[in-house]
């Protein structure tokens, strides 16, 4: 097997993992050694006979666990972006063990005693802001993890964490298999009438890749409303597609979700909280469940009113009493064509992936922040589809690496996300290596990759996360980049969406992929008008998912349903919040809500809307503060993007905008003040 590449740091530029040398058989030994080494390091910190200091306790904790950090970053990137049976088997085994390992680190009594002593005299230690923040975060993490519980309570807590971790992995693996199995198979191209020719060709290529030569396969995205619903002319096929999407996970994951919610509720009670949501939000920028409920109260009514206006317009246009869920997007697209003279399919030739990436996403980053990008084909990533770009600062100095992995494949989970293979840290001498994953259908060889507007927005959004990692300028890895509260982490990425339609940026990338002709001059304005028409639907489907997550995590364990009760619980929750709208299903239903039952967004999906309050307010600041875009970008980078979690994120927001956030711009964006449609 040779020397395990995880046992020492990478010698490649920016510490890029040596993917050419990494084999599956390296993972288990690296996890074993990494956990053992970190436990030994933690034990040594706790046993240090010298009195606790910031350096010998807090900073020492930041240095430990190097092997585990390296292997975990690469393994979980592979588990999400390029999995296989061996990876899934190891994932199912290792995730519960890592949960137990994390508990051992966080509940180590000797280390906690040292942190408790330092925390008690923290104001007298003479620490600068970042060091004080780090001490507070280490102490808070251990209190929240149960370091103050009695030994028998800690034993139960450890068991709960291990079981939750195992169930969340089971949920993800069930969903991956179910999503693949639920792909819509079509035998004849005529059945796909309405889809653009390049999408039909991509469906044929997808079928070929899946061993169904001669047919057509529409693989499912991770959310409810599949993009093809806007184009497919056959109402029966639309119904089949939506049913396949909404049926995922129903059999396998309903009971898993109930079990996870029950265990999380029990854990919260052990930790002194009435619900998992209470425990979770206490460490977020929202602070309290009441604050989240108040946000829902302010947003749900206007969203429903806006959606009702849209529904009435769609029904009138279609000449029917009401519009069904499977027909909403198709009807909305027809109204957009008639009312705004906008055909979404007609946009696609102007939205070619390479142009959007280089002349859109990258150009916007250069315009706003001065950074530049050079593709590095000499640097090998983890999959042939993944491309490596070197990022340099405005002065030409090295900043980090960005890996773009844009295409869907059977080995990749659904959705779009950012993660870090190397996090920035002055203490460890590390520059960032960040990854963006999307799931854009791969066309036949030699054909262009044409995007819809949602995919363009997603590309800008995920790159906003990448910027958060690339611009990190902190000493300690625990505070770097996107290591911020869950209800804040989406804020920088949502702000970055604004550049997709910024006139100077749009004019550069929105060009016909064959002729080079620019998008018609009046099209962007019509696009914005047409998007406004869909804000009601978008708000309701997002809020419905957020309240589902919230409902699962705000009730005590004794009030949760039995293993077969997930659908009834879901229906009751939507009814309770007034969001049981048959024509607008939640963006995620319980069985495929991987953010919540397979990821880190439990009682946190509200964060997308919470962060959008900050986003809408910041977009207004960019447009109205009287500075140039470049000057504003420097402020946003210096005061917020570079700071990670080295200070209170809301203090960083106030340093940019100059005040507390205002919900007004979001209500305006979401159509709260709109008149009749």
User: By CATH's scheme, which homologous superfamily of the largest domain applies?
Assistant: Neurolysin, domain 3
Sheet/helix structural class:
mainly alpha
Ends: how far apart? 66 Å
In percent, how much strand structure appears in the residues?
5-15%
* Whole-angstrom Rg: 25 Å
CATH class of the largest domain: Mainly Alpha
- Spans of at least 5 consecutive residues whose pLDDT stays below 50 are 673-677
Mean pLDDT, as a whole number?
95
Main sheet specs: 5 strands, mixed
DSSP summary: helix tally: 26
Overall CATH architecture of the largest domain: Orthogonal Bundle
What is the spatial order of strands in the main beta sheet?
A: 3-4-5-7-6
Number of domains: 4
Helix residue percentage: 55-70%
The number of strands is 7
CATH topology of the largest domain: Neurolysin, domain 3
Indicate the overall shape.
globular
What does this 3D model show about the protein?
There is one protein chain. The chain has 677 residues and is mainly alpha-helical. The protein has four domains: 5-106 and 108-144, Endopeptidase. Chain P, domain 1 (Glutathione S-transferase Yfyf (Class Pi), Chain A, domain 2, Up-down Bundle), CATH 1.20.1050.40; 182-248, no CATH class; 251-340 and 534-669, Neurolysin, domain 3, CATH 1.10.1370; 348-532, Orthogonal Bundle (Neurolysin, domain 3). Helices cover 55% and strands 6% of the residues. The chain contains 26 helices and seven strands. The strands form two sheets. Strands 3-4-5-7-6 form a five-stranded mixed sheet, with helices on both faces. Strand 4 (387-392) and strand 5 form a beta hairpin. The longest helix has 31 residues, at 151-181.
